[in-house]
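Continuing the batch. This is chain 6 of the set; chains 1 through 5 are on the previous pages. Same settings as before, nothing changed between runs. Recording input and output for traceability.
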Amino acid sequence: MKTTARHRAFERHASKSIINERTCPYQIGIPVAAAGLDVVLSRQIMEFHKSRHIQLRHGRTIFRYGEIYYRWCFTDLATAEAFRERFGGLLCETTN
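Output for chain 6:
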């Protein structure tokens, strides 16, 4: 069975998300619309990371409570809490 380039790209993204969640134990899940993340909010999130000189790390996309959640991963609780205070969302429990 041949693997398509699109499938390989998806596998790389999924693997990177799992690695991010393992190395950055504090994750904030933000509910998003089915259409995806709003452009303005996305830019604000990028600026949050840039202003703190930290790399933007995505976690997995999670389906809970009838909603889609995007996860952002952080190495320390203080930064994760600052992110949650600014953008809302839930502190996700890790199973690592």
